[in-house]
């Protein structure tokens, strides 16, 4: 599974990449939503894992752009954020995310959530 990890924290990106590569994923990284938009328009991804609170282009604006573009609107998204307020969760769900996890998350919980996305 080719996965894009979008988070402004290099430490968090590294931990997610380590967990996912150990489970057989190929991972790319982006430090904000603007970089992520460029990547999803030039690469093919099976999954995006994104933070919400980032500089330049935050996660919700990134999700709006992702869903507004024909080429990218189908990509499954899991939000991984420290922001757990009802407005953020509802907005993300309205934008069609497949999961919303709060930081910090254990790698096995993230992998279990990703496993639910696999076709049966």
Could you explain how this protein is built, in words?
The structure is a single chain. This protein has one domain (2-115): Rossmann fold (3-Layer(aba) Sandwich). The protein has 5 helices and 5 strands. It is of the alpha/beta class and 120 residues long.
Fill in the keyword field for this structure.
5 helices, 42% helix, 5 strands, alpha/beta, globular
How is this structure best summarized?
The protein is 42% helix and 19% strand. By secondary structure, it is of the alpha/beta class. The chain is globular and about 30 Å long.
Largest sheet strand order: 2-1-3-4-5
User: What is the CATH class?
Assistant: Alpha Beta
Measured between the Cα atoms of the first and last residue, the distance is: 15 Å
- Average pLDDT for all residues: 94
In terms of quaternary structure, what is this? single chain
| Model regions low in confidence, pLDDT < 50 over at least 5 residues | none
Gross morphology is globular
Structural class: alpha/beta
How do the helices and strands follow one another from N- to C-terminus?
EHEHEHEHEH
Number of helices in the DSSP assignment: 5
Roughly what percent helix? 40-55%
Relative strand content:
15-25%
Instruction: Compute the number of strand runs.
Output: 5
Rg estimate, integer Å: 13 Å
Write the layout of secondary structure elements.
Layout: E1 2-6, H1 10-22, E2 26-30, H2 33-42, E3 47-50, H3 59-68, E4 77-81, H4 86-94, E5 99-102, H5 107-115
Parallel strand pairs: 1-2, 1-3, 3-4, 4-5
Helix pairs in contact: 2-3
């Amino acid at each position: 599974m080719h996965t894009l990890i979008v988070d402004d924290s290099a430490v968090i990106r590294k931990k997610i990449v380590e967990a996912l590569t150990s489970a057989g994923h190929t991972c790319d990284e982006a430090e904000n939503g603007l970089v992520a938009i460029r990547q999803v328009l030039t690469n093919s991804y099976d999954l995006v894992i994104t933070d919400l609170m980032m500089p330049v282009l935050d996660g919700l604006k990134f999700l709006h752009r992702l869903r507004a573009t024909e080429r990218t609107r189908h990509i499954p998204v899991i939000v991984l954020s420290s922001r757990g307020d009802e407005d953020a969760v509802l907005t993300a769900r309205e934008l069609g995310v497949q999961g919303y996890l709060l930081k910090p998350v254990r790698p096995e919980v993230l992998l279990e959530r990703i496993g639910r996305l696999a076709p049966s």
